[in-house]
Structure formats: C-alpha cells, structure tokens
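FAQ: What does the model actually see?

It sees only this:
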Amino acid sequence: MKADSIRLPFRTPVTARARGFASAAKRLVACALPSQCALCGNLSQALLCDGCDAQYWNEPRLRCATCALPLAASAMRREREDLRVHCAACLEAPPAFNDTLALADYRAPLDTLAVELKFRARLAAGEAFARHLHARFEDSDLPAPDVIVPMPLSRERLIARGYNQAWAIARPLARMMRVPAHASMIARVRHTSAQSRLDRETRRRNVASAFAVSRDVRGTHVGVVDDVMTSGATLDALARTLKLAGARRVSNFVALRTPKD
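And it is asked to produce this:
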C-alpha cells in the first residue's frame, strides 16, 4: 500500500477540536483582558467602546451621490429624473465611477482609525469600517456589486508595508454582502508618488495608466474599496481602467472622505 493512500481518520476531528479550543481560548482572553477603545481610551472588549461606536458613525452629512463630497443644502443639484443629489463638478465633468458610499469625513477622531489601519497594522479597524459600510449600503438604494476589489498597492509599497489596508476592509465587506472578493484582480503596474503630497492636476497625471485588469470584467458591476478618498483621482483612474476593460458599473466604498478636494 502506498504511503500517500493511507488515511488517518483521527486527524480531522482532533484538528477541528484543537481549533475549537484555540478559538474559545481567544474569546476567554478577550473577555478577561479587555483592551482600550481606540478613540476615547476607555476599557472596551471591541475596537471601539459602545459610546464611540454609536456616536461617530452617524454623521448627518448630505453627500454627492457620485463622489461623496459633502454638500451644503444650497449646492444640491439633480439631473433630469435622478433623485440623487450631485455636486456641480460631477455633473459638469462626470468621473469614470458611478457611485461612492463614504462613512464620514476624514477628520478627528475617525482619522485616527485610518492611520492606525494604514501604518500600524491595526486590522480590526478594517473590520469596523467594513461593518459600517455594509450598514450604509443596506440603507442605500444601490445595487449590490458582482465583485469587490481593494484599491491595489504597488509591489514596492506592498513589500514595504506588508499588507494592503484596503483589503482589510474589502474582504470582510464582501463577506457581509455575500459577493466574491478578489485581492489581485486589479494590479498597480506603476509605482506612484503618495497622492497626499500632490495638487489635484498632478494627482491625475500621477495615476494615469497605473492599473491593469487581470480578469474578465465585461458586463460586471465592480465595487472598489479604499480607506480614504481625497480628490478621487486614483479611484477615477481605476474606474476608467475597469470601464475600458468592459465593466458596466463601478461603485466606490470608502471609509473616510476628505471634506474638500
């Protein structure tokens, strides 16, 4: 009898039992040793305490349905039969993407979570962002995407950081929405300068032709996930690449949006 044909039936239940014990142990440790709330510092068994979790995600903001830029009531504009409001810039020069859902403005205290996720590998922040993005989606009239992808990092940045913070949001969000997620469907083929250091026009030039699509997206609705949206130039460039590859619709799911470009 070949060695590789021998079955050891006791391994599977033992392994499953060990994993169950490990999971239970982790839950017990979490209960016995609560951590601090990431925003207020109070004791909390979750990333945020109940008070902060209830307070900071419910920002009463009117936003452009296309780019999620905060709007004043006087700036509301609609187009024909579209009941959604849009900013003047998106009506006059529509970006390649169709919709953007954002949780809140990029400002204190929630900007702390984005920084912790992006630079300190606090991946629990990604789960929190995903949970609230899913709730925001459920309250919207947007159709579910066919697939969810993270904003990709260049190979150089991914090696330096060790993880993609957008994937830390995209993966749990896709699970909650019950749609597939692909970490590598979009590749960043050009290493670009950090967008935060550039003006609006330079940002557009910086990300031109920066992406490539590795799967068939013809006729699909693609959901793109990112942690922070500033000018929207990077998301616009990615959406343009997807549309050129045949995508029918591109919707952005971003954790935080800067109040002004």
